[in-house]
């Protein structure tokens, strides 16, 4: 069991067996060779007809002598948690007697879905195939044999009795010093798989018009499309309207042009839609409907296959997303969501590709700042943008720039949401910093203003929605 250090418990049980049998086992040498089935180790020290009974007695003694003193290896629980974080299932395949292996699982609180015991070498491959494993982590050359027999990725750790050279000679794909290195390796491995799936999905589409806001998700999708299809089969469309901050326009255009793709900047008129201006809980539906209704004809005009949005796998699980529904109804494709790309993976892949947007804060449209039930208007959006620009300037001049910032329009009153660390420090209640920020918001046209003590919270306006829109 690669998760636990079986040496102390094995040695204690072997010594107890030796006393009962009246023999002397070379405990230290036998413990150093752990991995093969117990009977293989006993054959060198007992008569052939005594091996099987000795093995049975060892397994009977095992619970009393081996379970309590056996610890997990450093990083074992974290390794299992990493698998869960990626939505994986955990299979324990071991040469150990299954009931005794289960005792370790229970005693140490190991998060396991299925345990299969008393399998060895290539025999593990059949279990791995049956359970549809994708990666097998082991510490012995025979674990490598099982992984290769199943056609899955073999990951080996050096906490067993085999050397790096032995494991590599056996054909393992990866060698780690110990399990503490596994979460980072798994993150990279899953990201590689997602990138390969994304490339395949984009190639399947053939060409795309990316709805490009300039944010981290759509920027990554645009870069991935260029890598998969080439710039001639990709275009970026950034819709200009009152809801797109002016500060976002030039960086978005520069990013797309650096990739060598066509940049389209059609105007959208979501303000002409009654449902958008009314700003009920489904406002985003009308916004996305307007966007897709404008971009749809451009697909045919420029000889492209589909409009692609940067919707990721997390967005699809976030619950209230009327904009996603509007885009889907109009035939938009979602390559990132289709292959399971999460926001975290978007940022990791963007960093790997050295995209400047890898750590760009979320930048929802200006209308998202206006409280539901208050009509959206060009005046309100311009006022919010002026206020946010002014607050950013004040904070930068004070040497405390904000990463995340929203000025929420609650009517004539503004709520300033900014990084929690700033709220607890430079913008604490009654501070000079708080007064300077509030003065900047008031100068932008608000009658009242306050700093939200809870700090920035993405989607905080959704807290007041009634059940109709959830």
From TrEMBL:
It holds the Pfam family Hydrolase_like. It comes from the Bacteria. Keywords: Hydrolase. One of its GO terms (molecular function) is sulfurtransferase activity. This is Hydrolase. It comes from Nocardioides guangzhouensis.
